[in-house]
């Protein structure tokens, strides 16, 4: 879901930008950061995006796990009511 939202935002931001404008923005970034610091900056951004993605997947797993536990508890209670000897 987060991927779909970020993809929609990405397309919304780049909808009105032409190739020439992208080259101009790249040149400004190159002048501002310098050619040596751009790879470091890109790695840092990539690591940050990866951490956000991992955190969102962990949250989704926790939500699914917490939603599954009550169902298992209810099934166990049903078994004890139906057949209390076991």
The biggest beta sheet is recorded as: none
Number of DSSP strand runs:
0
Oligomer: single chain
Portion of residues in beta strands equals: under 5%
Query: What order do the SSEs take from the amino end to the carboxyl end, as H and E?
Result: HHH
Low-confidence stretches: none
Mean pLDDT comes to 78
Overall spatial form: rod-shaped
Computed Rg: 25 Å
Proportion of residues in helical segments: over 70%
Structural class: mainly alpha
Tally of helical runs: 3
Give the N-to-C terminal Cα separation.
43 Å
Task: Estimate nothing, just give the exact number of structural domains.
Answer: 2
Notes on the protein architecture:
- The protein has helices at 2-13, 19-33, 37-82.
- It is an all-alpha fold and 86 residues long.
- It has two domains: 1-33, no CATH class; 34-86.
- The chain is rod-shaped and about 75 Å long.
- The chain starts with a helix and ends with a helix.
- The mean pLDDT is 78.
Name the descriptors.
3 helices; 86 residues; 2 domains; mainly alpha
In short:
This protein has three helices and no strands. The chain is mainly alpha-helical and 86 residues long. The longest helix is centred in the last third of the chain and has 46 residues, at 37-82.
Secondary-structure map with pairings?
Elements: H1 2-13, H2 19-33, H3 37-82
